[in-house]
TrEMBL record:
InterPro entries: AAA+_ATPase, ABC_transporter-like_ATP-bd, P-loop_NTPase. One of its GO terms (molecular function) is ATP binding. The lineage of its organism: Bacteria, Bacillati, Actinomycetota, Actinomycetes, Kitasatosporales. Residues 2-232 form the ABC transporter domain. The keyword Transport applies. The keyword ATP-binding applies. PROSITE patterns: ABC_TRANSPORTER_2. Belongs to the ABC transporter superfamily. This is ABC transporter ATP-binding protein. Keywords: ATP-binding, Nucleotide-binding, Transport. It comes from Streptomyces spirodelae.
């Protein structure tokens, strides 16, 4: 989708991109970097809006230096900053953007209605955008990037300014842009870890340089921790505590609730336990993973608890970088 070869961008007092070489494949790719890492600069170069100082880049096989116009016809762009005119409605604005991309009037109106529905804007779409919440504005910005049915969209910080629920909704929408419409996505964020559930691939840049580019699964290797979620019953109103006690009797070593929060943030209703041999020589840690799975299943069944979920935890991307920076310091 995108090929970037030794790309640099120098401003008078700062080097925003420094000999960056990276390839972006079809699917959803997260471009992660701190504020000022060079993400927006890269997107503007890829759209042919700003020239690179050195190096080359192509988008869908087109050269960014000479074919910017053709690239912008086929690529959707959601800018980071607030750029919506306050006095027009979402419908008027998105129809206008569709016409700008070359759609005939009828097709532009139809595609606008479909796209606004897809991003979750209904009756509000006829009201002036000046009165919209940040979440609604971000949805309109996403809709105008999609309205001409591009093959690729570049989304610059689409979760900016949203609360946690709004973020999750936006990330879900972005995932569906790919799964429902087959449109590839390059999405930026300054929050490490935010994009790990949304992206197939993650590219991390720092100070305009490539830090790492790999599949999300490679970032988030499985850990040796098993997380188990069970239901509560009348007999065991706190199913999680009952399971923890019974597992201990069965010779396993579930973590104490306080430890759970350390390995599984926000996971108040999970029992976690080690299944690898990394953690010393207790009976639990030497047991093979499959016998641990069997014991957990049998224990939950004996207690009459419903087994909702039993999964091996994955590392979170932020942990990978915390370890990395600890190594760097060492
Ligand atoms: N037009 C410009 N003139 C001078 N310096 C610029 C210009 N645009 C960006 N920069 C600088 O280039 C560096 C990279 O900026 P860029 O906006 O690409 O970062 P970013 O990763 O997108 O961060 P943010 O999310 O904060 O926008 C920053 O140091 C910024 O100050």
């Amino acid at each position: 989708m995108i090929a970037i070869e030794s790309l640099s961008k120098r401003f008078p007092r700062v080097t925003a991109l420094d000999r960056l070489t990276v390839g972006i494949e079809p699917g959803v790719t997260g471009l992660v970097g701190a504020n000022g890492a060079g993400k927006s600069t890269l997107i503007k170069i890829l759209l042919g809006l700003s020239p690179a100082s050195e190096g080359t880049a192509s988008v869908l096989g087109m050269d960014v230096a000479t074919q910017g116009g053709a690239i912008r016809e086929r690529v959707g762009y959601m800018p980071e900053h607030d750029c919506l005119p306050p006095d027009v409605s979402a419908t008027e604005f998105v129809v206008h953007m569709a016409r700008m991309s070359g759609l005939p009037a009828t097709a532009a109106r139809e595609r606008t209605a479909d796209t606004l529905r897809h991003v979750g804007l209904y009756e509000e779409r006829y009201r002036p955008m000046g009165g919209y919440s940040t979440g609604m504005k971000q949805r309109v910005k996403l809709a105008q990037a999609l309205v001409h049915d591009p093959r690729l969209v570049l989304l610059d910080e689409p979760t900016n300014g949203l609360d946690p629920v709004g973020r999750d909704e936006m990330l879900g929408l972005i995932r569906r842009v790919h799964t429902d419409f087959g449109i590839s996505v390059l999405v930026t964020s300054h929050l490490l870890g935010e994009l790990e559930r949304t992206s197939d691939h993650i590219v991390v840049i720092d100070g305009g340089k490539l830090l790492r580019s790999s599949s999300t699964a490679d970032f988030t290797q499985r850990t040796a921790v098993l997380a188990v979620e069970v239901t509560d019953t009348d007999e065991h109103p706190d199913g999680t505590a009952a399971l923890r006690a019974a597992l201990r009797k069965a010779g396993l070593a579930p973590h104490e609730p306080a430890d759970d929060s350390a390995v599984a943030p926000g996971a108040g209703h999970l029992v976690t336990l080690d299944i690898g041999s990394e953690h010393g020589d207790t009976e639990a840690s030497t047991a093979s993973a499959s016998s641990v799975f069997d014991t957990v299943r049998d224990t939950a069944a004996d207690l009459g608890l419903g087994l909702v979920r039993m999964e091996q935890r994955r590392h979170q991307i932020s942990e990978v970088f915390t370890e990395r920076s600890a190594d760097d310091v060492a």
